[in-house]
Amino acid sequence: MMTTTTTAYLEHMAEALTLAEKSPIAGRNPRVGCVLLDDSGSAVASGYHRGVGTPHAEVEALHDAASKGIDTEGLTAVVTLEPCNHHGSTGPCTEALISAGISRVVFGAEDPGKESGGGAQKLKEAGVEVIPGVLAERAEELNRHWFFAMRTGRPFVTAKWAQSVDGRSAAADGSSQWITGPESRARVHEQRAEHGVIMVGTETALVDDPSLTARTVDGALASHQPHAVVMGNREVPAGAAVRSHPGGFSHKRSHDPAQVLGELFAEGYRSVYLEGGKTLMSAFVRENLVDEFHIGIGPLLLGGPQSAIDDIGVESIALGKALTISQVDRLGGDLWVVAVPERER
Asked: pLDDT by residue (tens digit) across 2-36?
């Protein structure tokens, strides 16, 4: 048996997490990395998951070992997520590891999936030593949207809006370009690229005709594009910019946020970036279906009736929906505020 220390496992798990960062950031599957160690504790092969339908990280690492002529009998696998135990678009990683003769599996976070979980128990029953929970918090943070979705059965929802210091999303005449500056807008594009879906209501689609693409600072399309969704019953014109979105387009003819989130989860989406308008935004807030708020605050006063959100079912200060501010950044002349709801007051 190898005598690799806990410190070495931490080092190799950190290596596996770095590999996992190469996985698609907002896909149906989690981002996973795997490193194989020999008896001396040295890394001899590695792999990461490249997206739906491709081999999982453990299988990629086994393929890497085979390509180098390395016998996998008795090796240790260090993997960021508990190996899966089900037949999806690929076979169970537990079976692949057992068949390869892996003697020990060190993993980070437990797999919460109802179908895919249970891999650790399967490995133990086959005589494989299992060491769980190594850098588990980092492994969860890397896939926080995915973990949330697996545990709740719906995508993680981020609501984003830009507002003036006095809470207005537009001037009295409806003009809103630009409340915040280029640095804040660049942050929005980064966030679009980190979500599986970008969603607006039909009012926004009809009035603003947004493209909803994710772009880099030089204006090029980002490598990952969210799937564009318009929610509402009104027709989206055939020539609307969103219909030619590079990430694909869907029209959800519904006013029920929970229903739409359920449909998106079933379609394989694990995160939603909600960009408005305020009727759609308010509906999600009212139903407590926003999990994180991204609020860009520009240094100006606008007054007038154009509030960022409207009726959210709060009739008195005692019924206000409490938030915890988790992050505040200065972006140029703006403030970028990240807040999360306090589910229990």
From this structure: 344 567 799 999 999 999 999 988 888 899 999 99
CA distance 158 to 273: 5
| Per-residue DSSP letter, 275 | -
User: Tokens 């950031």 map to which residue?
Assistant: 25
Are 90 and 56 in contact by the 8 Å Cβ rule? The answer is yes
User: 190-213 pLDDT, tens per residue?
Assistant: 999 999 999 999 999 998 899 999
Burial (CB count within 10 angstroms: exposed 0-12, middle 13-18, buried 19+), residue 143: buried
Active site positions, annotated: 58
Q: Quickly count: other Cβ atoms within 10 Å of residue 73's Cβ.
A: 9
Contact indicator for 272, 196 with CB cutoff of 8 Å = yes
Q: How far is it, in rounded angstroms, from Cα 19 to Cα 138?
A: 13
Helix (H, G, I), strand (E, B) or coil at 199: strand
Would the pTM count as exceeding 0.85?
A: yes
Task: Give residues with Cβ within 8 angstroms of 39, minimum separation 6.
Answer: 2, 74
Between CA 105 and CA 124 the distance in angstroms is 10
Q: At what angle do helices 57-67 and 6-20 cross, to 10 degrees?
A: 100
Q: Which residue has the tokens 């694909």?
A: 248
